[in-house]
Amino acid sequence: MTISKRREFLFLYDVRDANPNGDPDDGNRPRMDNEGFNIITDVRLKRTIRDYWLKSYQGQSGKEVLIRRELHPESGNLLSMENLVLQAMNIDAEKLKDSKAKEYRKEAVLKIAQELTNVFLDVRTFGGAITVKNANYSHTGAVQFAIGRSLNHPNIKSYTITTTFASGEDKGAGTFGEFHGVDYSLIRFHGIACEYTAEQTGFNEDDLKLLYEGMWNGTKLLNTRSKFNHLPRLILTVVSKEKAFQIGDLDRKISMNEKDNINDVSQVKVDITPLINSLKDYSDNIDKVEVLSDGVITYIADGKETSDVKGLLESTGINIESIVLK
């Protein structure tokens, strides 16, 4: 069964001494807006989730990942999206090139439209523009995220790095570069899982659990040098009672009173009073709120400070349930 109720996500994670999302147009420095907030694209978050799925589920039926790097076992060349789609759908590339095989082309497009989402978890979840010569097709995903932003004003720190490669006895070749990172950034994302689009792609309750896994565990698995020290802090999901209902802008309903000179999670205090008030205002439209918290960040609501965010949410009178990961 596909999901029948809309979900709104609020996802918080923090970054210390790392680069959450480099800007290639700015020397790969962390992306920043004009007000000094750290920006992270939805593409970066989706990549985090996909990478986790690849490590955990690739090869399992219905849990394949289409947007991935894979080399041809013989040539060593990088396989294109077209290669991966044709292989998964058992479509003959030569027949697609045949201008006389119009019926085969129609069948190929229909197969991609109807069956691709059964195979690829990421297409079922996020959608994708499928580029196959003579059989292009576009899937709109059930889950979409807005651009992420930090709650605080992080400081960017740059370091010169060197690498030396041995080129012979007593010889070496060195290169110099720069590493850019933030000292501390607490990042918020707002997302939607749309029940109407889910009907088209087949996104279901089991896929939703895998999404939570990818967000939480995938963030913890970011262990390259530039992505080290990423930790998930909160997933909060508002589940609607009726189709098409959503509060909207959950990420704008939380804030930090102190935005500057924050360099450790112990200094963080997140005010969720506006979020609590919105949940109370729309309680008749909300089936439940699902929560996963690491219990570290201090939250504030109506003057009360606690790391027990679930306890604060219970004041809304809405059913609050814990998200349990595998």
Written overview of the protein:
The chain has a domain at 7-42 and 151-322. It is built from nine helices and 17 strands. The model has no long low-confidence stretch (mean pLDDT 93). The chain is globular. Strands 1, 4, 7, 8, 9, 10, 11, 14 and 17 form a nine-stranded mixed sheet that branches. It has a four-stranded mixed sheet with strand order 12-13-15-16. The chain is of the alpha+beta class and 326 residues long.
As a whole number of angstroms, the C-alpha radius of gyration is 23 Å
Report the count of strand segments: 17
Q: Helical segment tally?
A: 9
Percentage of residues in strands: 25-35%
Order of helices and strands: EEEEHHHHHEEEEEEHHEEEHEEEHE
* Percent of residues in helices: 25-40%
End-to-end Cα distance, whole Å, is 20 Å
- Envelope shape: globular
